[in-house]
Write a structure and sequence with these properties.
Length: 584
C-alpha cells in the first residue's frame, strides 16, 4: 500500500465531485488492519473436553494468517462461572481453567507476535460476575468498604428501586435479603453493574488494564462501554409500556461517559500504539464522531448497531422481526460513512451476539455462496476497519434447534418470558429464536466434515450442538475449492492491502436510489473504485456507459463470467463487482 503519509501522519484527500466527502485522515496501522474475531469456547478444542481453548487457537494461527487477517479479537478468557459465557468475570487476572493456563495465553501471544499478528482482548468493564471477590464483599454489609463498588439501593414501596428492564428480560434489580437492598444488573442477575462514580473502581479498572498491557496486549474491545455512566438518581422510565428497554435513556451515553473514558485513557492507553474499539449500542453519528474524533476522541473506533436494526420492528425488541429494506441499509451506511470522516468505525455484519449474515441478509440455501461473497464485497470495500467473525469466511449459516438445545441465557430467558405472557405461540417464539438467537453464531467452528465438524475429538461432545450444515460447509472443503467463499475473502483482504482507496478513499453513492443494487464510489487521488452489489435474488440492471467508455480494470467479481452491454450493466442474483478507474 502506497500512501503519501507515514503512520501517524495526517494527509488530506480532495475530489472534484461535490457529492463526495472531503476528508482529512491520520494514517494508522489499525485502519489498515483486518480483525478476525474468535469466540474461544467454539473455535477449536485441543484437549477433547468439548470446549474450545487457547491451545486450539494457537494451532490455527497459520490458517488465520493465510486468510490475511493480522489482528485477532479474542472473546473473554478470564476466570468466570459462565452464566453469560465469560462476559461475567470473576477474576480479571486469571485465565478460565477450561480455556487453559496463563502460560497457554502467553504462548498464544508469542506465536501471534512471531507472525506479525496482534492480540485484541475483550474488556468487560460495566459489570463483573456476582462471584467476583469485590461483589461478594460488597454484599456482606452496608458499611463494607466494597459496598460502593456496585450500585445498591433500598426498595420502593416493597418493589424494586425503579422500573428499568434488563437486556436479558425482567427487572434490572435483584433483591438481596442479607442487607435488605437491591443491586443493579443491566444484564443477568449474575452480572452486577460496577459503580463508576467511585474513583476506587476506576483505579481498579486502570490497574487491570495496565496488567494486560504489560503482558503484551495490542488492543482492547470494550464491552457495552457506553452504559457505564448512569443518570443521577436512576429515575423511572416514563413510558415503560412503549419502551423495548425501559430505562435505557438513563444510562446509554450517560453524562460522565466522556469524562470516565478520557481519565481511563490518560492512565492507560495514552502514548501507546494500540487501538480501542468500543461496543456502543444506541449511538448516533454525532456520538460516534465525538467518541472517535481524530484529535480528541476517547476511542479509536466503535461498533454501532443501527444497521443491525434494519430487520427489527420500530420500537420493539430484537425478537420482533420485519423484512429489511435496502433503502434503509443504504441510508444508514451512507450517513455513518459521511459523518465519521474525522473519526473511525468498525465494519461488521456478524459477531458473537449477531446471527449469521448470509442467513439474515442473503440467501443461505440455493444462493449461499453468491450472496455470502456479495455481502463480503459490500462490507470490505467500505471505509472502516473490517471484522471477520469465525466461520463467516466459509459462509456458515444459522442453526434451527429445539429449545432444549440452546445454551444462551438471553434466548432461554426470552423463551420462558414469552411462554408466560402467552401472546406468542411456541412456533412464533421459535421462529424468532431461529432468526435472532445469539447461539446462531456460537455453534462450533466447522473445520471438516468429520464427527463434530473437526471442532473436537470424536470421543467428546461439544459444549453446544454443531450445526448439521458442517457436512457441506467446512474449512477443509473451502480450502480445496478455488471458487470458495474462503478464497474470495482472502482475495478481498489482499486487495485492501494493495489499494489505498479502499482504506482511505472518500465515499459517495452511485445510482443511490436503485431498488436492488447498492453501488458506491471509493476515490483516492487519481484512483476511483466503483463497487456494485446486487442485494436481491433476481437479475438487476444499471443503465450506464461508464464501463464501456472507460474500460476499467475489474478487480473482483463473485461470478466467473461478466456480462455487459454498451449502455447497461447486467448483474445476476447477488452479483458483486468492483471496477478500478484511473484519472476518471
Amino acid at each position: 500500500m502506497e500512501v503519501n503519509a507515514v503512520l501517524g501522519e495526517e494527509f488530506t484527500l480532495f475530489t472534484k465531485d461535490n457529492t463526495t466527502i472531503y476528508s482529512s485522515c491520520v494514517r494508522k496501522w489499525w485502519k489498515e488492519s483486518i480483525v478476525y474475531h474468535i469466540y474461544p469456547r467454539s473455535f477449536c478444542d485441543s484437549n477433547g473436553d468439548g470446549i474450545g481453548d487457547l491451545k486450539g487457537i494457537t494451532s490455527k494461527l497459520d490458517y488465520i494468517k493465510a486468510l490475511g487477517a493480522n489482528v485477532i479479537w479474542l472473546g473473554p478468557i478470564y476466570e468466570s462461572p459462565n452464566e453469560d459465557n465469560g462476559y461475567d468475570i470473576s477474576d480479571y487476572y486469571k485465565i478460565m481453567p477450561e480455556f487453559g493456563t496463563m502460560e497457554d495465553w502467553e504462548e498464544l501471544v508469542a506465536e501471534m507476535h512471531k507472525r506479525d499478528m496482534k492480540i485484541c482482548m475483550d474488556l468487560v468493564l460495566n459489570h463483573t460476575s456476582s462471584q467476583h471477590e469485590w461483589f461478594m464483599k460488597s454484599r456482606e454489609s452496608k458499611d463494607n468498604p466494597y459496598r460502593d463498588y456496585y450500585i445498591w439501593r433500598p426498595g420502593s414501596n416493597g418493589k424494586a428501586p425503579n422500573n428499568w428492564v434488563s437486556f436479558f428480560s425482567g427487572s434490572t434489580w435483584e433483591y438481596d435479603a442479607q442487607t435488605d437492598e437491591y443491586y443493579l444488573h443491566l444484564f443477568s442477575k449474575g452480572q452486577p453493574d460496577l459503580n463508576w462514580e467511585n474513583p476506587k473502581v476506576r483505579e481498579e479498572i486502570a490497574k487491570l488494564i495496565r496488567f494486560w498491557l504489560d503482558k503484551g496486549v495490542d488492543a482492547f474491545r470494550m464491552d457495552v462501554i457506553n452504559v457505564i455512566s448512569k443518570v443521577e438518581g436512576l429515575p423511572d422510565c416514563k413510558d415503560p409500556e412503549n419502551s423495548p428497554l425501559a430505562g435505557s435513556e438513563y444510562y446509554f451515553n450517560g453524562p460522565k461517559l466522556i469524562e470516565y473514558l478520557r481519565e481511563l485513557k490518560g492512565k492507560t492507553f495514552d502514548h501507546l500504539d494500540i487501538f480501542t474499539v468500543g461496543e456502543t449500542p444506541c449511538v448516533t453519528t454525532e456520538h460516534g464522531l465525538k467518541y472517535t474524533h481524530k484529535t480528541d476522541g476517547v476511542l479509536s473506533m466503535l461498533f454501532q448497531f443501527e444497521h443491525m436494526e434494519v430487520d427489527i420492528q420500530p420500537g420493539k425488541s430484537k425478537w420482533h422481526c420485519q423484512q429489511w429494506n435496502l433503502d434503509d441499509l443504504r441510508a444508514i451506511t451512507s450517513r455513518w460513512q459521511h459523518d465519521l470522516q474525522h473519526g473511525w468505525q468498525s465494519l461488521y455484519l456478524e459477531n458473537h451476539d449477531q446471527p449469521r449474515s448470509v442467513s439474515r441478509f442473503g440467501n443461505d440455501t440455493t444462493l449461499r455462496v453468491e450472496s455470502a461473497k456479495m455481502l463480503a464485497t459490500w462490507l470490505h470495500m467500505l471505509c472502516g476497519t473490517p471484522f471477520v467473525y469465525q466461520g463467516q469466511e466459509i459462509g456458515m449459516i444459522n442453526c434451527k434447534y429445539d429449545i432444549k438445545e440452546y445454551n444462551d441465557v438471553e434466548t432461554l430467558n426470552m423463551y420462558n418470558e414469552e411462554i408466560q405472557k402467552g401472546q406468542w405461540t411456541h412456533d412464533q417464539i421459535m421462529d424468532a429464536i431461529h432468526k435472532k438467537s445469539r447461539d446462531n453464531n456460537r455453534t462450533p467452528m466447522q473445520w471438516t466434515d468429520q464427527d463434530h465438524a473437526g471442532f473436537t475429538s470424536q470421543a467428546s461432545k461439544p459444549w453446544l450442538k454443531v450445526n448439521p450444515s458442517y457436512k457441506t460447509i467446512n474449512v477443509a472443503q473451502a480450502l480445496q475449492d478455488p471458487n470458495s467463499i474462503l478464497h474470495y475473502y482472502s482475495k478481498l483482504i489482499h486487495l485492501r492491502k494493495e489499494y489505498p482507496a479502499i482504506v482511505y478513499g472518500t465515499y459517495s453513492l452511485f445510482e443511490g436510489d436503485h431498488p436492488q443494487v447498492y453501488s458506491y464510489w471509493r476515490k483516492f487521488g487519481s484512483e476511483s473504485l466503483l463497487v456494485m452489489c446486487n442485494f436481491s435474488g433476481e437479475d438487476a440492471s444499471i443503465a450506464t456507459d461508464l464501463v464501456c467508455k472507460n474500460s476499467p480494470e475489474l478487480l473482483i467479481c463473485n461470478y466467473n463470467q461478466v456480462s455487459k452491454t454498451d449502455q447497461v450493466i447486467l448483474l445476476r442474483p447477488y452479483e458483486a463487482r468492483v471496477y478500478r478507474f484511473r484519472n476518471l
